[in-house]
Amino acid sequence: MKVGIIDYGGGNLRSVANALRELGVEPIIIASPADVADVTHLILPGQGAFGDTMERLETRGLDSFLKNWIAADRPYFGICVGYQILFDASQEAPGIAGLGIVPGIVRRFTGEAGLKIPHMGWNSAVSKHGETPVWKALGQDPYFYFVHSYFPVPLDPAVIVAETTYGTQTFAAAVAKGTMFACQFHPEKSQDAGIRLIRNFLGL
After folding, report:
1. Contact call for residues 204 and 197 (beta carbons, < 8 A)
2. pLDDT by residue for the chain (204 residues), tens digit each?
3. How far apart are the first and last CA of the chain?
4. C-alpha closest to that of 19 among 35, 5, 37
5. Which residue range forms the structural domain that includes residue 106?
6. How many domains does the chain have?
7. Catalytic site residues?
8. CATH classification of the domain holding 23
């Protein structure tokens, strides 16, 4: 097993790399498709805006590469914006297309009274399918760390692995499709639960 972290010129590479090293895995930094070589698992860390991320991926030739990688059912882990770009589009960047791998759109939290935006801090993610391989030993509603103003809305509820409620809005905190897993929260900042989730994804 060789794990690559996608470097698109943004994202929280250092924290994700440290989480992998905690599991005894030394990551490979991927800045272009030519860097992938014999990598078996890809992680796209999230930090930044939807439109900017898509433009950076396109500039580096990583957008079409990722589409082909996931279409071939090769393991992909998307975090925060690495999750959001899997969808068709986002209200954050009108007119800019996402990867279109998971049908749906990314929406902004509504400004209901007293609700702080961005959603920042610890919140539970309630499992929709019990203890699946990626959710092994996490329990029904583990807590993870969130920082976001937008959340994806999948058209097919069957892909939703876990849901989180913020204010009156319940949203898809994580999705899975084949060997692809993606989440809105930051496992690399979520202590034991986050490390367990990454471990499960890698099959360690």
Report:
1. no
2. 999 999 988 777 999 999 999 999 999 999 999 999 999 999 999 778 999 999 999 999 999 999 999 999 999 999 999 999 999 999 999 999 999 999 999 999 987 778 899 999 999 999 999 889 999 999 999 999 999 999 999 999 999 999 999 999 999 999 999 999 999 999 999 999 999 999 999 998
3. 10
4. 5
5. 3-202
6. 1
7. 80, 186, 188
8. 3.40.50.880
